[in-house]
Amino acid sequence: MSCCQPSCVTPSPTYAKVLWAVLAINFVMFLVEILGGLLSGSTALLADALDFFGDAFNYGLSLWVLNRALSLRAKASLLKGYSLLILAIFILLTSVYRLVWGDVPNHFEMSLIGGLALLANVISALLLYRYRQGDSNMTSVWLCSRNDAIGNILVVFASMAVYYSQSNLPDLLVAGVMAWLALQAGIRIIGQATQELQKENETGD
Predict the structure, then answer these.
(1) Mean residue pLDDT across the chain
(2) pTM, whole model, 2 decimals?
(3) Whole-angstrom distance, CA of residue 131 vs CA of residue 10
(4) Is the dihedral of CA 56, 58, 62, 63 positive or negative?
(5) Which of 23, 54, 57, 188 lies 20 to 30 angstroms, CA to CA, from 31?
(6) pLDDT digits over 176-185, tens only?
């Protein structure tokens, strides 16, 4: 009997190759953006760099649990969800600090690195698009890549706004939006993973 429920989807071998590819892309971009964020003074770039690191970790975790039991994959998803919540809180706290003590970031470095990050995330999102439906683990991978692409588009627009306004407010607003996206994704992933664990426990009983 066929199963159309997300929790029954078995990832294909091709999915593992895609995960390895996006893991490499995200780790390289973490190194690029953390350096660019420090040099440019952009909170949005630093937030996105941490997001790249978190995504690389999550993709590695997804590879580890790829063909394991649903309960273990759901527990891995819970870890991802809570890590997104922690990331969102960190971004918000950093934004508040930069609002009070931060300087105007370098718009040229913001736009250059933001554009490169956008390209990396669009490629990752396109690679993962066909695998967006599945268990909470597959859903979390897709949501992370989708949110990153949205965030990088905002970074590029923020760099232009910084140039014209000579203010750090556009940069901080984008960081706030990225924090909100991380919160939304974290809550959704945690909710789906919790439901999967409950169903698994009921089946086990």
Answers:
(1) 78
(2) 0.66
(3) 11
(4) positive
(5) 188
(6) 887 887 788 7
